[in-house]
């Protein structure tokens, strides 16, 4: 239109700060969590003096990719998310590539993983510039609060040679029940997920049965991260028919999950955050009816809007939609909450590792993200609605420098205790 002036909010500067926070000795199919979890905090500063926040992984390879994107992002309008996507793609040489996940057992889209924290930071900046919460920018919140599930882990009482973390050991059904009882009492969770793949399947079935006896009304899930063969997966699914709301990644890969799904003939919904982790995984998974529920995760699906796209695709193909998590801080919890609030069909309680994080270790100012009845109220302030605590950021960055960890490696860490340990992949 002649004479119209369209203002833009260009990216002036981007800061990426790696941080480390304490993580208990949580067991999984590939080993045990190391004493610190690594994350990165992304700050996108605009010409208007606004700072948008994002959070992502903190391993060296990913940090290098994030840094490579920065020069390409300078000058891009934070409202032009297509240009943000092009800038990230250009920084990776334009080539589509897949990158191993934190545990080296899932291959995700590298560009989508890099794009995610910048997209979230741009949305936070947009919200701050327009005075609207991110959920409004995503089409509006369809719920005021987002339900999360208790996330139980088998665990040791302490890291090798370390002090006890206060949660105690959980190495049998009674230990798991005690742990979940505390989580439910403290946070009010209304659903429970057990991380499996640690002990022989029958022991994990017993833990699920003990949970069912203690919590007769709560939906339960079990996730052995592909530790079982298709035969074992079918047997466990049949045993837990009517007990689990879904069974997550019992066996690796789309063909394996498809075989289990076929043999179960709809008796148990299968869920995944391992065999469908990028858009190109959807056509084969749908064609083979490999899964009935997809766990989204904006950290590797390319940010909040692309995860909403995933939600629509799931709806079209009659798939359920849930949400996955890794160890994370408050910027991610805020982003997950806005996303789930603005995605109508994301109606399972979302995963979160939140209860495993120390209350005094976060990069956001406390007060906004509180759990009540197992749910977090959707922040209503501009953008993500959370404020960066710069002192805490500096402390957790110093901890990153001191801790010496530069990539997650649960298997090598486990081998310091059990030298013969072999990851459990289709092992039972
Ligand atoms: O933190 C863990 O040990 C989990 O196993 C995590 O890494 C998984 O990505 C995740 O929670 C899952 O649902 O598979
Ligand atoms: Mg999983």
Give an account of the 3D structure.
Keywords: Lyase, Magnesium, Metal-binding. It catalyses: D-glucarate = 5-dehydro-4-deoxy-D-glucarate + H2O. It comes from Kineococcus endophyticus. It is an enzyme of class 4 (lyase). The protein is an alpha/beta fold. The chain contains 13 helices and 17 strands. A 7-stranded parallel sheet has the order 9-10-11-12-13-14-15, with helices on one face. A 3-stranded antiparallel sheet has the order 1-4-5. The model has no long low-confidence stretch (mean pLDDT 96). The structure holds D-glucarate and magnesium ion.
Which sheet architecture does the biggest sheet show? 7 strands, parallel
The ligands found in this model are:
D-glucarate, magnesium ion
Q: Which structural class should the secondary elements be placed in?
A: alpha/beta
Order of helices and strands: EEEEEHHEEHHEEHEHEHEHEHEHEHEEHH
Distance between the termini: 66 Å
Side-by-side strand order of the widest sheet: 9-10-11-12-13-14-15
Rough shape? globular
What is the percentage of strand-forming residues? Answer: 15-25%
Give me the Rg, rounded. Answer: 21 Å
Residue ranges: pLDDT <50 for 5 or more in a row?
A: none
* Number of helical segments with 4 or more residues: 13
